[in-house]
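Sequence design from tokenized structure. All designs in this work follow the same two-part layout: the structure record, then the generated sequence. An example of the structure record is given first.
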């Protein structure tokens, strides 16, 4: 797993874990009690929260990190696929509100 920072317009929003291998994406946030920061899954078009212990914010993004849609996902749920997206960002519920994350935001990763 790679680590870095999630930014918008040069402002650091959160510490970021980057899950790019199949195993890292499958594991995701399963087995955790929470996350301090966010996790980026790529490639990914949909996610589930089956077996998760907490509610998450989910952002569906293009491969170049343009936010297309955001949702709040309770444990035991599944999202519908994002056909235009290829990258997903997950964080604890309430994170996106604190970051003021909006559809149309362009995000970036710094190592």
């Amino acid at each position: 797993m790679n680590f870095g920072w999630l930014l918008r317009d040069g402002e650091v929003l959160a510490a970021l874990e980057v899950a790019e291998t199949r195993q890292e994406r499958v594991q995701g946030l399963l087995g955790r009690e929470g996350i301090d920061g966010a996790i980026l899954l790529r490639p990914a078009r949909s996610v589930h929260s089956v077996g998760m212990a907490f509610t998450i914010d989910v952002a569906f993004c293009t491969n170049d990190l343009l936010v297309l849609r955001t949702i709040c996902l309770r444990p035991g749920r599944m999202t519908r696929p994002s056909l235009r997206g290829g990258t997903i960002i997950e964080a604890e519920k309430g994170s996106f509100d604190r970051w003021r994350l909006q559809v149309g935001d362009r995000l970036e990763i710094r190592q």
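Helices lie at 22-27, 95-99. We note this feature because it recurs in several other targets discussed in the main text.
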